[in-house]
Amino acid sequence: MKKPFETYFGGKGSDGTFQTIINQVPKCSVFVELMAGNGTIGRLLQERDIYHQLIVYFNDIDPVVTNAFVSAGLNCLNEDYKYVLEEYFHPSRINLDNVVFYCDPPYLKSTRKSQDNRYRFEWTDEQHIEFLEIISEAKSKVMVSHYPSELYDTFLGGWRKIEFQSQKRHGLATECLWMNYPEPIELQTYDFLGKNYTDRQRIKRKRERFVKKIMDLPMLERKAILEEIENFN
User: Fold this and answer.
1) What is the arithmetic mean of pLDDT over 145-172?
2) CB under 8 Å to 172, separation ≥6 — which residues?
3) Which end of the chain is more exposed for a tag (fewer CB within 10 A), N or C?
């Protein structure tokens, strides 16, 4: 699936970043990127949805982003996130039980190394506060990415939070991910499972070995084992 942009400030495409985030996405029917940017998380989830059971929505207020998505063959809403929440995903209009929202707003300027404008639609501190007030009351599952921030910790203090290192142009940076739901017991995809590259490769090889052993069995034995696994779950 083609990327809308080769690089995008604040994008989550660096190694170790998108894997960490995706490993926190619970099984869902609908995944919504409210501030899409390069749409890395949604695109990767969509690529791995081989049975087409997941609906992915992208949204960005920047028409340049929306047009880049269209050029890449992807659909992207061009709305303010508040409108999307109110008009498309209000609890009175849709069952939110199997909906996950991923929010990757512009970084607070106070948390950046440079105070220069990097987004076409920057946010003021007041806009960050408004966002946090709205999203902290969400009735669905929500994930929020940002640099470490006392403001975000204050509003999302009751949420689960993980920190990890993300590779940026000028070195490593600490990223945070806040979630208003417990540690998932079922993931949307297991393709990136593992703490780091070495761990992901270990798990991948183990999966391949187990699958090969099962597939090499006589057909009825194989079906018996698969049935036992299904009953166990």
Assistant:
1) 91
2) 165, 166
3) C
pLDDT in tens, 54-92: 999 999 999 999 999 898 888 899 999 999 999 989 888
What total of structural domains would you count in the chain?
2
Residues 169 and 220 in one domain: no
Contacts of 122 (CB under 8 A, 6+ apart): 106, 109
Q: Are residues 104 and 174 in the same domain?
A: yes
Structural domain harbouring 133 = 17-179
Phi first, then psi: give them for residue 74, nearest 5 degrees: -120, 150
pLDDT digit string, tens, across residues 7-54 = 777 678 888 899 999 999 999 999 999 999 889 999 999 999 988 899
Q: What pTM was computed for the model?
A: 0.90
Which residues on adjacent β-strands are paired with residue 31? 56, 100
Both 50 and 144 in a single domain?
Answer: yes
Co-location of 101 and 34 in the same domain:
yes
The Cα 33–Cα 60 span in angstroms is 8
Sort strands 55-58 and 99-103 into parallel, antiparallel or unpaired.
unpaired
Please report, for the domain that includes residue 29, its CATH number: 3.40.50.150
Q: Return d(Cα 81, Cα 87) in angstroms, integer.
A: 10
3 state DSSP class of 192: coil
Task: Say if residue 227 is in the same domain as residue 137.
Answer: no
Residues 211 and 174 in one domain: no
Element (H, E) at 89: none
